[in-house]
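hey so u asked for the seq, here:
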Amino acid sequence: MTIPQDYLPRAPQPPAPRVEAAALAICDALAGERFGRQRGGKRVVDLRDACGGFRRFGRENSIPPDDYRWATQLMVEAGLLECVEAKPPSPLKDEFFADQPGPPEYVLVSTLDLWTRWRTQGGLLCPRGEPLPGPLGDPVTPPVAEPNAPASSRVRCDEGTRSVFLDDRCLAEGMVPHVFRFFKAIADAHPEPIKFKAIRERAPGLHGKHSTRDLKNPLPRALKSLVKSGRDGYYLTLPPL
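ran it, structure tokens below
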């Protein structure tokens, strides 16, 4: 089914990278336990939570709610998510409106194609530099290193393949998106340390993630040995050349 009118975007379409960031955050929520849950062998999340930017219990979220609405609409149109009614409306318990049906509830249901793109193609709505569906702007290309970048920039993170290179040697590839973004934020700050709060502001989709259990511990062994933490935050310790 199509998305109900109440959950459609209200603002103009944002730039493609913003919609992609919201799409990744929706996948992280589906895969997590705070908002996502299992239903019939698939992962589901409440449509209300997704289109509201997962703003529950007062947590801050750097992604605007309408970016989530655009991401939700495009993911449903692309067949990556299915929007279904969760259950028949329950009667409202009110002495003046007895037996009146309550508002219907909807969930977003994951599809196999969604997880295939999430894990292997480096993107959801714009995998590997392809444009977003509809009139959402230009293709998203991987960032190119600045010509004046200092020679000490030995770590390179490829967002297209979610790979990490040290001195042009691949240490990890095809990483889980939120783990990759956690490491990339630390690498981008190198040689300075970075607080976890700043990492969450820079990297979308880390809301509800525990810094050690969900992000540092799942790092591949070759990367985990490079990441240290202290009073000033997380930082990299690179081997000598």
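Confidence is low (pLDDT under 50) at residues 127-152. The chain has two domains: 5-91+102-124, 155-236.
lmk if thats what u needed
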